[in-house]
Every structure is written in structure tokens, then in C-alpha cells.
Input
Amino acid sequence: MGRKLSCVIVGAGHRAVAYASYALTNPDELEVVAVADPSPLRRELAAKRFGLPPERCFESAEALAAGPMLADFAINGTMDHQHVPTSLPLLDRGYDLLLEKPFATNESELWTLVESARRNGRRIAICHVLRHAPFYEAIRSRVAGGLIGDILNVQAVEHVSYHHMGIGFIRGKWSRTDYCRSTMLMSKSCHDLDLLAWMKSGVAPVRVSSFGSNFQFRSERAPAGAGTRCVVDCPIESDCLYSARKHYLDHPKRWAFYVWDSLEHIDEPTDEDRLESLRTSPYGRCVWKTDMNVVDHQSVVVEFADGCTATLNMIGGAAKPSRSIHLVGTHGEIQGNLEDSRFAVRHIDPRPGHEYSQEIVDLNVGGDMTGARGGHGGGDERLVADFLRYLNGESPSLSSTTLDDSIAGHLIGFSANRSLDEGRTVDIDLRAPRGVG
Ligand SMILES: NC(=O)c1ccc[n+]([C@@H]2O[C@H](COP(=O)([O-])OP(=O)(O)OC[C@H]3O[C@@H](n4cnc5c(N)ncnc54)[C@H](O)[C@@H]3O)[C@@H](O)[C@H]2O)c1
Output
């Protein structure tokens, strides 16, 4: 075990607090020494949770960065469009960063952050938690070891469940590009784009095409007679698959940190508090009648410099959430589902009476988002532990996502969105523009 490290929380929302909580379970490895958040309630909750005195509670990242260095690093869990503006003053002050994804919302921001990190000589890890999930870690180590030869195709699929689609991208914080300044592809599936780049590590993505739209959640597809708010004026609510009552009141804990955001000031909200919240909050709206402007499904096709192709299909509104990956190499293939924590490794077997050999690798890790071993298949906690080791001087692990490692996946995403908007294939250039060291 390395030296005990200290951190500050920037943006005390559910993600940053989840990572920072590593300090509560591993107090000999990490200590939280300050928080910065404009919300007095969020500051107060974080101060209580981590035992922080008032002088260690700041109103913003900028206010924190204006003072002396207080810790070894900052956990930046602000929203997507705040990642770069809040990180720049922290980098200038000298903080290393554990930074949420997507780390930027467009290419210009991406290069601004890269320039600042390089100029300040700071270490940044991006929270690509799936790289730390045992399922993907085990696949990556086999690919890196050459087990299936040179990869010529990768197929990744993310099925976003109907309830996740509703809470995040129809009714929620990522439903409008002008508000969150990000897209569904980047907010939801930049992990999966990162996985494509990671599996091809060292080979540059060169071209991208993408197609997609909002197929389903439009007013013309609303069931006949649908109202505008499920618990206010909808006569067909009891028959509706997307009823806010069914999604949130019948499952009050499932997406609590999003849907009951407005009730954070109440220790134990009652059903009546929740019902009242759904009468007025964005989460009570009819899914066919919101002002969302993001896609509900998008396909991305990538070509790499060695001729390998890769696809990501992101589909929102699925009955079952799932992530799958299928890699085909010159000597064999790997195929599996994250939720099963199991994958098959197949090799060509041309002997008479044979076709292929198959080994099932079972990682025996339960659950994805809610696993007892931490969110994202155990990835959340392992990501923090990995970053602490990195700051303590160890070389980055196979799963570590330094800022430079995350550039390819992010550029695939920005280029895919440009392809979608402009109806053309988009070239990717991984070289930093002039002026970025
Ligand atoms: N890695 C993952 O798998 C994963 C999963 C979900 C969300 N995310 C990402 O995590 C990020 C945070 O999501 P969340 O739901 O926790 O957000 P959140 O809205 O709960 O928290 C963000 C916090 O930042 C604070 N903030 C705003 N401006 C600030 C400033 N200038 N200085 C300091 N704090 C400021 C807000 O008051 C808020 O409390 C998002 O970018 C999201 O896309 C990542």
C-alpha cells in the first residue's frame, strides 16, 4: 500500500460522492479534506458525510482553486459541460484530477484541457469505470496478450433500458443538448466508444460514420388520449409502460438520486412528497411530450488505421439493460455480455470432426450498476484504487485511463455526432492542433 492521499470534492453530486466514499471504507488510503459546490445543501451533505469544517467548504471550483493547495488531487464530478471550465483553474493551482466522463463536450474543449494538463504537468484519470470492470479487464488482457491475434472487427452494443432512457435522456438532465451541451452518445456511450479505442490501443481510429434519430419519443407516437403529466392529467396512465408513477413511485430507490433530486433536503420523503414532486418536476412529464432533442438510438461505424472496423449500436428503450462485445481476430474470437460476467473465447479448429474450440471464462461477478462490489460491475471502487496507485508512483495499469488515453474514444464520439449532423463520413486526426504541446 502506498502513501495515504488526500482529495477535495468538486461538484458534490452522486458521482463524485460515490468515488470519494472510498475514503470511508479505506481510511488508511484516502481522506477527503474539502468540498466545493455552489449548492449549500450539497456542501452541507458532503461536510456531514466526510466530517469537514465550514472553512473547508467552498462555493465553487474556482473559489477552491483561488486558495492554497489543500490536497493531493481533486475529484471533479461536475456535469459534462462544466468539466473543462472547472478543471482549468484546478490544474493551474496544481491539482491532479480524477475527472468524470465525457471529459469535454467538443473538440475545442478537449484540446484546451489537454493543453492545460500538459503545460501544468498534471496527471488526470478519466472515469471510464468499465475499463475497471473485471469483465472488460479480463477481455482486454487477453487481447493485449495476443490470444485471438490481430483484431479485425469489434462489435459493441449498449441497450439502454426503458427506465434509464426515461430518467436520463427523455425527462432528465441529458435530454436537451442546449442544456447539458452534450449528446446521448457522449453522455451514455462514451464508455463504449472508449472500449473500442482501448481494444485497439496503439492503432488510431481514422474515419467514422454514424446514423440515428429519435425514433420513438415524439408527440406523434403518443398513445391516443395521453395527457402531458402522468399523475396530473393522463387518463391512460394505468396502461402506460412509461408511467412516472410506475417508474418512480413503484421503484422509489431505483433512480432516487435523479428523480428525487428536489427532495434532497428531506431526510425521509413520504409517498405524498414524491407524488407532489412528480406533479411539477421534469420527471412527471409524458415521455412522448417532452422537449427532448437527443436521439433514442444511434449507430457508429469506425475504421482504424490498420483496416480494422468497429461498430457501436446504442439503443434506448430496451426491456433489459445490457452491454455486449464481440471481437474477431485473425486467430479467434471473444464474445460476451457484461451482465453475465462471462465470455466465450473461441479458436479455429480445422481438424476433422471439429469446427472450433470454446472456453467459457466466468468471472462470477454479480450485477452491473447495483453490484454489491460497487457500481459498474465493481468498476467504481477499482477505478479509485487504481488512481491512488498511479499517484503513488506506480505505472498506469492496463485499465488506467490517462487523459491522453481517452482522446481517441472522445474524438470518435465527436466525429460520429458530426457525421450524424452533416450526413457524411468524418476523418479523425489524433494529432493535437498547433499550440498544444
Ligand atoms: N462514469 C460513469 O459511469 C458516470 C455515470 C453517471 C454519470 N456520470 C457523469 O458524472 C458527472 C456528474 O453527474 P452527477 O449526476 O453526479 O451530477 P450532479 O448534478 O449530481 O452533480 C454535479 C454537481 O456539480 C455542482 N457544480 C456546478 N457548478 C460547479 C462549480 N463551478 N464548482 C463546483 N461544483 C459545481 C452542482 O451543484 C452539482 O452538485 C456527469 O458528467 C455525468 O455525465 C458518469
User: Anything to note?
Assistant: The longest strand covers residues 151-161. The chain has three domains: 5-122, 130-217+293-373+401-427, 223-284. The pocket of nicotinamide-adenine-dinucleotide is lined by residues 10-15, 36-39, 42, 60-61, 77-80, 82, 86, 100-101, 127, 129, 187, 376 (CB under 6 Å).
